[in-house]
């Protein structure tokens, strides 16, 4: 079975999507021909969240870099939220006190 068919079957069976729109991602150094051999695959839920393109500079390789950009703000830019009411505060306090005690003893070693 040809490798392309194996990949096609896998993508289809797993319900995945391919980002590549047919853009060339590879330059054959021997004959100067272009092809689209790099296949960025993703879950369908991510397909509309990212912009995909091929960089126009080979950067010293025979494969063009693939640039993927998130169209929405990243999770790191969100304001953090915590479920403070679900914390085990007595356990936290006990662990904190034990850690604090151990740190105090580590720093109190005298060099004689």
TrEMBL record:
<protein>
    <recommendedName>
        <fullName>Endonuclease/exonuclease/phosphatase domain-containing protein</fullName>
    </recommendedName>
</protein>
<dbReference type="InterPro" id="IPR036691">
    <property type="entry name" value="Endo/exonu/phosph_ase_sf"/>
</dbReference>
């Amino acid at each position: 079975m040809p490798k392309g068919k194996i990949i096609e079957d896998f993508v289809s069976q797993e319900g995945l999507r391919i980002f590549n729109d047919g853009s060339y991602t590879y330059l054959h150094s021997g004959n100067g021909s272009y092809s689209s051999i790099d296949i960025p695959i993703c879950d369908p839920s991510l397909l509309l969240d990212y912009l995909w393109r091929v960089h126009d500079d080979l950067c010293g390789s025979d494969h063009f870099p693939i640039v993927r950009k998130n169209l929405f703000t990243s999770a790191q830019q969100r304001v953090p939220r915590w479920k403070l009411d679900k914390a085990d505060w007595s356990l936290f306090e006990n662990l904190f006190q034990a850690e604090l005690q151990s740190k105090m003893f580590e720093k109190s070693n005298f060099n004689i």
